[in-house]
Amino acid sequence: MSQPSSAVGAWYRPMKPRQAGEPHRSATVLELFFDLCFVAAVAQAAAALEHEAAAGHVGHGVLGYAMVFFAIWWAWMNFTWFASAYDTDDVPYRLLTLVQITGALIVAAGAAKALEDYDFTLITWGYVVMRLAMVVQWLRAAHADPDRRATCLRYAVGIAVVQVGWVARVALPDDAGLVSFAVLVVAELSVPAWAERAAVTPWHPHHIAERYGLFTIIVLGETITAATVSVRSALDTDLSFGDVTGLTVGGVLTVFALWWLYFSQDARRRLTALRTALFWGYGHYVVFASAAAVGAGLALNVAHIAGHGHLGDTATTAFYTVPVAVYLAVLRLLHRRPGSWGEDAMWAVAVLAVLAATYLPGPIVTTGVVAALLVAATLWLRRGEVVEPEAAS
Fold first, then answer.
1. Which DSSP symbol is given to 171?
2. Which helix (H) or strand (E) holds 51?
């Protein structure tokens, strides 16, 4: 694991900027722990989504899930890019990171109540805890990095001001909830673009690509876990393994393909400029959210077979096929290379085929087969390319 090169002591190190071209830069054990704890919040949000859909509250559940997932993803993303530029791994940095993890656990605890009752009080406080810890981190960076002090102060001020808005939103009437949420989301998304205009922070392209890849792996792993728990619960009833074999095989095949397709892309080439990096980073909200929703959709289909769901067959299936199609479409959009019309057509056919599987017999297996065929087609099209090996971490 990489450590800051300007180490002075374990207790305190000046928060000097890391080098954007630093060799052998990789994720730290603290970052991995951070990801695992944040995925606990992802799991709770996905489970609440599945519960709401099973109860027939589809629109309510999807909207609540999108709102809760924003809080999880945005806090994770901000920490990830900050750490890429200013990770000191000293005691104050670690303690502030642990405060952020605590905030994520608060969000996890409030996920079900947010989706079921639209009560975002606990979610808001957990989110504000995470974001205020980031304010302190940015103030530390402003003190130690005079060349980017204006950028760091813009981050600190921007984040702090928006948090006032989130706290005030808790007191607003319910009918103002969506409008205020949308306004505050726009404000949050605008802070990095505004702050980086003063001077770009020295984030590390390889490190960022690795961090996003690791989080994708963990989210997909949580999807497998959620599906496994659902199958086990179904087998504890009157269902036999034969009743859920198609869902199990199709689900596993789909997740394997989603993993393969994600890591068949060269993310580092998209992280060469701030504009493309922000587009790539922001777009992962949809990648992460849809990946987690795949697990919820598979669990919902298992519950439907067991007789515990209230949706129709097509609606239940769509809860699985639509997230898979969205994942594929956005992944392609984020990594599209100019002039690659042949690959565009191939991915478009795959997306449409997954959506069409909603109305076909054996939709889960069909989805898995389509995703696997897309992997095979991608490998065939790139058979003549020379793949540059990743540097050792």
1. T
2. helix 29-54
- C-beta separation of 163 from 178 below 8 A: no
Cβ(344)–Cβ(225) under 8 Å? no
Q: State the Cα–Cα distance between residues 6 and 257, nearest whole angstrom.
A: 41
Please report the sign of the dihedral spanned by the C-alpha atoms of residue 38, residue 41, residue 47, residue 48. Answer: negative
Cβ(371)–Cβ(354) below 8 Å: yes
Question: How close are the terminal C-alpha atoms of the chain, in Å?
Answer: 7
Which residue's structure tokens are 């056919």? 349
Distances (CA, A) of 313 to 253, 271, 288, 360, 361: 21, 42, 26, 11, 11
Rounded Cα distance, 377 and 344, in Å = 12
Question: How confident is the model over 77-105, as pLDDT tens digits?
Answer: 999 999 999 999 999 999 999 999 999 99
Residue 307's CB is within 10 A of a number of other CB atoms, namely: 10
Residue 30, number of CB atoms within 10 A of its CB: 17
Q: Measuring CA to CA, which residue among 272, 242, 258 is closest to residue 328?
A: 258
Q: How far apart are CA 108 and CA 274, in angstroms?
A: 31
- The torsion angles phi and psi of 270, rounded to 5 degrees, stand at -85, -5
**Per-residue confidence at 12, pLDDT binned at 50, 70, 90?**
confident
Contacts of 391 (CB under 8 A, 6+ apart): 23, 24, 206
What three-state secondary structure class fits 330?
helix
Tokens of 301: 């289909």
Answer yes or no: are the C-beta atoms of 286 and 326 closer than 8 Å.
yes
